[in-house]
Specification:
There is one protein chain. The chain has 132 residues and is α+β, with helices and mostly antiparallel strands. It is globular and about 35 Å long. This is DNA mismatch repair protein MutS.
């Protein structure tokens, strides 16, 4: 005869995921001063990635490597240049980049995203979370 003993497991706390940032929209957890400095272009850019000339898949791979390196290096503010593109709705990389921000490995890194300048919709500035 086999005896089965039930073991009570501790309750699993649900993982609270942070919503992915949207371009030009202030994220929860971002204070007034940082948001103002980021949106006005007053933060020093630690590194810049230019995606001109890449096809979308290559651009994504470069973007992903760059974001991982940003975390390792402890960079706080980075800029990604996509270019405006030649189509009516802009280039394909420029259209795809906001979707890349929703990835589970990217979204937790980013506090805020804005266009680097109102007149330049082909470049984005990212405020990254500090490493803990």
């Amino acid at each position: 005869m086999v005896t089965v003993r039930l073991v009570e497991m501790p309750a699993v706390q649900p993982v609270r995921s942070r919503p992915a940032p949207h371009v030009g929209v202030r994220s929860p957890g971002l204070d007034d001063t940082q948001w103002r400095r980021l949106s006005r272009g007053q933060m020093r850019v630690d590194a810049r990635l230019d995606l001109h000339g890449y096809v979308v898949q290559e651009a994504f791979e470069e973007f992903h490597r760059f974001m991982q390196r940003s975390r390792v290096m402890g960079w706080r503010c980075v800029e990604i240049v996509t270019g405006l593109g030649s189509g009516a709705r802009g280039g394909s990389i420029r259209r795809e980049l906001p979707q890349w921000l929703h990835r589970a490995d990217i979204a937790p890194m980013v506090l805020g995203v804005v266009h680097s300048h109102q007149g330049n919709q082909g470049a984005l500035r990212f405020l990254l979370r500090k490493k803990r």
